[in-house]
């Protein structure tokens, strides 16, 4: 293993180093997918099948990675995806990740299941989006939307692919439960079913979310959130073009093409494969973002070339967080920024808008 975080030269290096120091059950909680992890593996394979056709003889002495997401400017077209319970990985949890995102000039997305309150995160002064799970009591969900606006969040991201948690076999085998020190700060903040190891085979987190999340999530919820807030609204978990069109009709500002990092329906289409059809269906009527499997700056460029406005990145910042807190997350984002600028220039692109005109070719699986 590299002697210092700075010696880690790519996001895969950071993951390997973090996996070597984390408790096995926490490592599996972060790394694992649902079922046989077919979609988890396919996400990466789908991105690797996308080959870029670079342009040459272009002056790239000035090459800008700056981009706009949900109406605001950032240093690169990347946001930190919402990930629950980050204090599992480091005592500062989401606070460290949010500070690193601010330093990198990108947005941090706070989860409904964050182990740090939204108010603490927005107080850091960076750009914070709030991710919403639709709860069994709709009024509580809408109260969280109000709370996000009052706290200074800059967008609401409604996750629409979790009527309940997918069957994540690593967590089931580990009988995974939260330690008492890690709690859902936006819910009641007290120990819950998520903290009690199940009596039989199972995951305490799955039991907790099954009790908290509403399986009756429908387009009505989207309409209620849209009516409740003037903040930009994104729907995360869209794979079908028909759903993307319906989202536009509901007045959303963005859809996130995502299969939840392979953690929900095992066998769902890889996000990168679903992206072009969604982009075509919305026809510039809203932004389209991509998540699930992004691991390199070249992946960011691939997403742009396939029509996305930007990407959300989930697991890699967590590996950095586990290794070195804020410094580790910042290193992950610095690596990604350096790789993206390198890929952008080598593809003959002077800026992010130029990248959207790159041609791609798909390798045969």
List keywords for this structure.
two-stranded antiparallel sheet; globular; eight-stranded parallel β-sheet; 365 residues; 41% helix; TIM Barrel; EC 1.1.3.15; alpha/beta; Aldolase_TIM
Instruction: List unreliable stretches of 5+ residues.
Output: none
The named CATH superfamily: Aldolase class I
Q: Helix coverage percent of residues?
A: 40-55%
Assign the structural class, choosing from mainly alpha, mainly beta, alpha/beta, alpha+beta, or little secondary structure.
alpha/beta
Mean residue pLDDT: 95
The coarse silhouette is globular
Largest sheet: 8 strands, parallel
Give the neighbour order of strands across the main sheet. Answer: 4-11-10-9-8-7-6-5
How many structural domains?
A: 1
CATH class reads Alpha Beta
Textual characterization of the structure:
The structure is a single chain. This protein is of the alpha/beta class. The protein has one domain (5-362): Alpha-Beta Barrel (TIM Barrel), CATH 3.20.20. It is 41% helix and 13% strand. It contains 14 helices and 12 strands. An 8-stranded parallel sheet has the order 4-11-10-9-8-7-6-5. Helix 12 links the parallel strand 10 and strand 11 (310-313). The two termini are 33 Å apart. The model has no long low-confidence stretch (mean pLDDT 95).
């Amino acid at each position: 293993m590299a002697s210092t975080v700075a010696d880690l030269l790519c996001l895969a290096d950071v993951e390997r180093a973090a996996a070597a120091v984390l408790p096995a059950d926490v490592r599996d909680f972060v790394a694992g997918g649902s079922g046989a992890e077919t979609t988890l593996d396919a996400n990466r394979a789908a991105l690797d099948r996308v080959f870029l056709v670079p342009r040459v003889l272009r002056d790239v002495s000035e090459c800008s990675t700056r981009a706009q997401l949900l109406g605001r400017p950032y240093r690169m077209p990347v946001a930190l995806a919402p990930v629950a319970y980050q204090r599992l990985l480091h005592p500062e949890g989401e606070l460290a990740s949010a500070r690193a995102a601010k330093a990198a000039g990108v947005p941090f997305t706070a989860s409904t299941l964050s182990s740090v309150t939204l108010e603490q995160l927005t107080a850091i002064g960076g750009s914070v989006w709030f991710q919403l799970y639709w709860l069994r009591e709709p009024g509580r969900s809408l109260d969280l939307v109000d709370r996000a606006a009052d706290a200074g969040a800059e967008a609401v991201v409604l996750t629409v692919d979790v009527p309940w948690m997918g069957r994540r076999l690593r967590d089931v085998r580990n009988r995974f439960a939260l330690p008492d020190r890690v709690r859902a700060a936006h819910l009641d903040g007290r120990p819950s079913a998520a903290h009690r190891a199940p009596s039989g085979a199972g995951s305490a987190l799955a039991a907790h979310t099954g009790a908290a999340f509403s399986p009756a999530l429908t387009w009505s919820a989207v309409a209620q959130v849209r009516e409740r807030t003037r903040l930009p609204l994104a729907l995360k978990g869209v794979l079908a073009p028909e759903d993307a069109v319906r989202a536009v009709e509901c007045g959303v500002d963005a859809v996130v093409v995502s299969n939840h990092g392979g953690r929900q329906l095992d066998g769902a289409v890889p996000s990168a494969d679903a992206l072009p059809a969604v982009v075509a269906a919305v026809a510039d009527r809203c932004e389209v973002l991509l998540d699930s499997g992004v691991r390199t700056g070249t992946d960011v460029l691939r997403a742009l070339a396939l029509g996305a406005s930007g990407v959300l990145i989930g697991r890699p910042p967590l590996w950095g967080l586990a290794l070195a807190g804020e410094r580790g997350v910042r290193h992950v984002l610095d690596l990604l920024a350096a790789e993206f600028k390198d890929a952008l220039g080598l593809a003959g692109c002077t800026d992010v808008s130029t990248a959207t005109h790159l041609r791609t070719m798909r390798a045969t699986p």
